[in-house]
Amino acid sequence: MRAFASKAAALSAMAAALLLTGCASHPIAKQDLSAFNAAKPRSILVVPAVNKSLDVDAPNYLLTTLTVPLAERGYYVFPVHTAKTVLEQEGFYDGDQVQKQPPEALARLFGADAVLFVTINRWDAQYAVLATTVTVDFDYRLVSKDGTELWKANKKMAYSPQNQNTGSPLGNLIAAAVSAALERAKPNYMPLAQSANLQVLTMEPTAIPTGPYARVN
Amino acid sequence: MRMICLAVCALALSGCATGNKGLYDWGGYDAMLYGAYKDPTTVAANMQKLEAHIHALELGKQKVPPGLYADLGTLELQAGDKEKAQANFRKERELWPESASLMDALINNGAMPKAKEAKS
Known about the structure:
The complex is a heterodimer. Chain A has eight helices and six strands. By secondary structure, chain A is an alpha/beta fold. By secondary structure, chain B is mainly alpha-helical. Chain B has a single domain (24-113), classed as Serine Threonine Protein Phosphatase 5, Tetratricopeptide repeat. Chain B has helices at residues 2-14, 29-38, 43-59, 68-78, 82-95, 100-109. In chain B, helix 3 runs antiparallel to helix 4 and helix 4 packs antiparallel against helix 5 (82-95). Chain B is globular. Chains A and B meet through helix 1, helix 3, strand 3, helix 4 and helix 6 of A and helix 1, helix 2, helix 4 and helix 6 of B.
């Protein structure tokens, strides 16, 4: 009975620890958000990303994934396609050119409170015989209209399609080969990019404060 | 004992998935843009989907999410329909005051703005 009780106590302590650690997968200290809280941005301009990956389409695709999580966090997000078109009109066709501009000038051009700069470090698929690993890695930096850095973070995520268990070794091998072939033909980066953005913006230790349109609980 | 552990573990696992209902109904706006970028021949079809979604939101008296009117307007402008584009830029401006300066530039120019300041 004593043994049982102490075992139970140990287990519940472990469980409590599990509960407390829950979402915090990185032992990184929560960042200083005092500049963010002082600036209280209402609106965020997302500009085309700097691309360090080999996939030339990555910046356009990434651009389509940032509006939803930022707006759901309570901010006005400038229409990304419109912003991209305006920047092209100005002669800025890629993220490198755009991000060389002073953030203050970009913010002024659009009337934005803050500008989000993203660098794509990785957007690739590594092929092995039976599985493919898709990886994305982004640096994020939010700068206020007066040039103050409000927030920065990095997020890397990798995904390997789950091999189905068909119940037979040969069946498993075939299923894995099929899934690898499919990923090879057309790796789908979008769910991965979407979860990277969602996690970095809404989960500790990197979450940004909620904006003016967030639902008050 | 096992029951407790299961319950606690389930709680721990669900911890991250905050069952927050979204602020807006996006209707696949991100997927439409993605589709248009991925295959430019689908721009017109995606533009129509966006227009239909906005129309449905208006009918249901739901708030149109930030940027949808304006991006629809830009797609219409690119397709040569200046009047429809301007009407959507006006709607974006009215619904989202934060967009005012950009929308004014788009409405007044009838094309994309040429801002001198950014060149400095």
